[in-house]
């Protein structure tokens, strides 16, 4: 059976101390309670970078300029009902203060502690790359 490929854009915000922002998925959604990188689905006709800038504003209340999106790694993972393709950008600069507008919780986490937080299966390789790179 052929499953649709869904494009989801996500960001690893990195603060001046090298900690990474992760966010706990809200109750009532798929994968609720697991910790993810902020982001979301690209809408039809939307550029991926524009989608990420939009999601970071909707979810965290921050303004990010496209010049501050550094392409990093991607996840390609088969879920039961769709195939997830998720590029992850590194973001070290933004305007405004991060606030929780959407998630159950937010956490700033040292890369070597990310494995303490249960994440969706697609995210495991991304975490390993962050640990090595940051
Ligand atoms: N944002 C994000 N989504 C992830 C990660 N890992 C992972 O498997 N996903 C999956 C979970 C969902 O199936 C999909 C993202 O969908 P979503 O429902 O959060 O999308 P969205 O923010 O646009 O929210 P909505 O408008 O659909 O409510 O990607 C991750 O690290 N970050
Ligand atoms: Mg989202």
From TrEMBL:
Cofactor(s) essential for the protein: Mg(2+)
One example GO MF annotation: hydrolase activity
InterPro entries recorded: MutT-like (IPR047127), MutY_C (IPR029119), Nudix_hydrolase (IPR020476), NUDIX_hydrolase-like_dom_sf (IPR015797), NUDIX_hydrolase_CS (IPR020084), NUDIX_hydrolase_dom (IPR000086)
Transmembrane segments: none
Catalytic activity as recorded in UniProt: 8-oxo-GTP + H2O = 8-oxo-GMP + diphosphate + H(+); 8-oxo-dGTP + H2O = 8-oxo-dGMP + diphosphate + H(+)
EC primary class: hydrolase
Pfam hit, one: NUDIX_4
Keywords recorded for this protein, A-Z: DNA damage, DNA repair, DNA replication, Hydrolase, Magnesium, Metal-binding, Mutator protein
EC numbers for this chain: 3.6.1.55
CDD domains from the UniProt entry: NUDIX_MutT_NudA_like
Nudix hydrolase domain: residues covered: 4-132
Top-level lineage group: Bacteria
Homology family: Belongs to the Nudix hydrolase family.
The protein's name: 8-oxo-dGTP diphosphatase
Organism of origin: Peiella sedimenti
């Amino acid at each position: 059976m052929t499953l649709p490929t869904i494009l989801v854009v996500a960001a690893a915000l990195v603060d001046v101390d090298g900690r990474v922002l992760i966010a706990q998925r809200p109750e009532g959604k798929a994968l609720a309670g697991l910790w993810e990188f902020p982001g979301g689905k690209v809408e039809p006709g939307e550029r991926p970078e524009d989608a990420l800038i939009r999601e970071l504003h909707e979810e965290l209340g921050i303004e990010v300029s496209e010049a501050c999106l550094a392409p990093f790694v991607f996840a390609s993972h088969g879920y039961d009902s769709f195939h997830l393709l998720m590029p992850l950008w590194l973001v070290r600069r933004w305007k405004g203060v991060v606030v929780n507008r959407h998630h159950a919780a937010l956490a700033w986490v040292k890369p070597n502690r990310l494995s303490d937080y249960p994440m969706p299966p697609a995210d495991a390789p991304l975490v390993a790359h962050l640990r090595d790179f940051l």
